[in-house]
Amino acid sequence: EMMRGIHEMMQGMGIDPSFHRRGGHEGPLISQMLMWQDQLGLTADQERTLRELRVNFKKESIKRTAEIDVAELELNGLLEQDKVDVAKVETLAKKIAMLQAELRVGRVKTIEAGKAVLTPEQMEKLDRLGHESMMGGMGMRMSDPGTPPRRPGAR
Questions:
Q1: What is the pTM of this model?
Q2: Residue 22, helix vs strand vs coil
Q3: Other beta carbons less than 10 A from residue 142's beta carbon
């Protein structure tokens, strides 16, 4: 219940609550890949595949989240009864947990499929960009996130 409130609060603030932390950067990893497509040197096919993965997961996420919300409403209705049917509550609680697990596993599978689209060199660049972005967000870099770091003494 608390996580749902946090989820809704993040959405209200325009933050995608399905973010995935990796290498220090926040945000859906596939969206990060697409944001840095020029720096990563993504091909048109890679970009298309990543966009398809992102859209397909978003569709599935919307459906699964709606199923969870409906099941939560049903569960609340059961719990408001004077005589709670514990067996029905247990069945519905397990259904909700399974739907949440399916959503989480789907997210991991999508992220892994997105990572598989990149070459090892592109993955290294992505890790570097994520690290640089994190350091920039902490005020440790003065240049734009897309600019390579300067060497000490270089002008």
A1: 0.66
A2: strand
A3: 9
Torsion-angle region of residue 23: left (phi > 0), alpha (psi -120 to 50) or beta?
Answer: left
* Phi and psi torsions of 25, nearest 5°: -100, 150
Residue carrying structure tokens 């459906």: 63
**What is the rounded CA–CA span in Å between residue 32 and residue 40?**
10
Per the CB < 8 A criterion, the answer to whether 133 and 25 are in contact is: yes
What is the residue-level pLDDT of the chain in tens, covering all 155 positions?
A: 554 555 455 455 444 444 433 333 345 899 999 999 999 999 999 999 999 999 999 999 999 999 999 999 999 999 999 999 999 999 999 999 999 999 999 999 999 999 999 999 999 999 999 888 777 755 544 444 454 554 445 44
- Structure-token match 């029905």, residue found: 88
